[in-house]
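Schema walk-through. Below, the input block comes first and the output block second. Nothing else is stored per chain. Lengths vary across the set, and this one has 253 residues.
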Amino acid sequence: MTFKQWFKRNLPDIRYFSAEEFLVKGLNKNGLNTSPPEELWPNVIPLAYALDGIRHHLGVPMRLHSVYRSPAYNRSIGGARSSQHMLCKAADWSAPARGDAADWAATVRKLRADGLYSGGLGQYKTFVHVDVRGSQASWMGKGVVSDGTYLSAATAPAPRATPQSADFPASMPTDDETHPTESSKGDDRAGDFVRVLVAALILPALYVLRRPLKALWGWAWYGSQTQKEKAIGRILLVLAATVIVATVFWSLI
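--- output ---
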């Protein structure tokens, strides 16, 4: 069964998108991106319904720039290590016939609050990222400033456009050119709790380890052991310091 056949069978009531639009691969200049493997196709179902609802509310055509990314392609463009694109749960899109990314994000934010979908919302300069990860997460792309001026949500659908129409200029940047990096944290409350917990445990842990660390310091720098033992001790000391600094940094960001 092809993806087109699967899409028609499982998403017969999608109003504004075709199967081919969910196979978009971005610029894919390096040729590393592929079509999504069959085991990931079911993830398209909630994504398609979310995008279809957003499209209906915007009332203008939407262009999907990037949906599935193979792990190799995602790495090559600097995507997040846990990118929802690799699960076929995310889409980067634009609606150039209406407003800008701030307008589109404002509409999506309201629709998500009203229960259209549960997932991520990322606002970038020329497009919006939407994913159906199942938990709320929001972020702004690097350099994005929202002026607070948003369009009101439309309620009437508009005629469907194709990628060849005037609504989709050839110069419209895709995900590759604008380097989206999904937030892996966003509004992730569970992740925030873990980071606060780790930060709270750092000082007590250092207090408990003060004597072993002091002993390691003395052994590495002032001990009378052989040069080989000193080298090993100093390596262990550097590794311990690196782990502590990395833990503190991770817990604070």
